[in-house]
């Protein structure tokens, strides 16, 4: 089932195919694009789209960035952009090699990027949209939630909420990713963020039997800096990094990101 909810919200995956240092586009100078499916990992979606559209296997796959759009094809959309290297040209596709000088302007920032980055495209201002959590029912007992998480670190350890999740929560339809991060940290801790650094995408499928549902989480994780010397709100607690191994986190990939740092 596609993670597309009428004209309101969609999770898009874009794959720029690279062959011998050049890129392939269709006759309209568009890359491969598709919609992420329920319980599908972003990298698996990229593999599927390349196989379906280009009939080749990927030899190397790299995340290049996230495009966040407002008021274009959907009220709000997240577009995960990857570069896929292939070893062969396919005879069974409409995609062809394009000379560097003819690359479409929209995709040049991703092609030329040296590091993962975020991009915004606005036909409307985010605050003109309905204020609504980005949590959608796919069918009875199955949901998608798009959320942000903040790794807040001090000499006391890392800050968690009372459910052993990193501070954070659902992004809202009428805000950007960074606005969601600042809001969630402020609401849950009282702290203001000075700066943030993106550290990973966690894709967890979490069974919640007490609520009779399964949730597909797409979770953007940031390490944030600020003045964390004052006591935080009572709903959060500091856990030392040595103790993290023993805590039970439903979002396993978030835990893996923390432990890999």
TrEMBL record:
Keywords: Hydrolase, Magnesium. Its cofactor is Mg(2+). SUPFAM superfamilies: Nudix. Residues 164-253 form the Nudix hydrolase domain. GO terms for molecular function: hydrolase activity. InterPro entries: NUDIX_hydrolase-like_dom_sf (IPR015797), NUDIX_hydrolase_CS (IPR020084), NUDIX_hydrolase_dom (IPR000086). The keyword Hydrolase applies. This is NUDIX hydrolase. It comes from Erysipelothrix amsterdamensis.
């Amino acid at each position: 089932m596609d993670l597309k909810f009428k004209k309101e919200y969609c999770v898009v995956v874009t794959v720029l195919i690279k062959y011998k240092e050049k890129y392939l586009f269709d006759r309209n100078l568009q890359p491969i694009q598709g919609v992420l499916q329920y319980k599908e990992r972003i990298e698996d979606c990229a593999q599927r789209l390349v196989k379906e559209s280009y009939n080749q296997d990927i030899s190397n796959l790299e995340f290049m960035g996230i495009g966040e759009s407002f008021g274009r094809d959907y009220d709000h959309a997240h577009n995960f952009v990857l570069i896929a290297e292939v070893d062969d040209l396919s005879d069974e596709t409409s995609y062809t090699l394009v000379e560097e000088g003819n690359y479409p302007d929209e995709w040049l920032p991703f092609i030329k990027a040296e590091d993962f980055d975020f991009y915004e495209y606005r036909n409307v201002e985010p605050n003109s949209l309905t204020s609504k959590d980005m949590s959608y029912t796919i069918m009875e007992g199955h949901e998608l939630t798009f959320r942000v998480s903040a790794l807040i670190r001090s000499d006391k350890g890392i800050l968690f909420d009372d459910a052993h999740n990193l501070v954070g929560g659902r992004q809202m339809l009428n805000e950007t990713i960074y606005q969601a991060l600042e809001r969630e940290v402020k609401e849950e801790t009282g702290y203001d963020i000075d700066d943030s650094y993106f550290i990973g995408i966690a894709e967890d499928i979490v069974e919640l039997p007490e609520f009779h549902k399964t949730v597909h989480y797409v979770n953007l994780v940031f390490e944030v800096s600020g003045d964390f010397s004052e006591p935080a709100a009572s709903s959060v607690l500091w856990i030392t990094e040595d103790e993290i191994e023993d805590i039970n986190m439903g979002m396993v990939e978030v835990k893996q990101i923390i432990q890999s740092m």
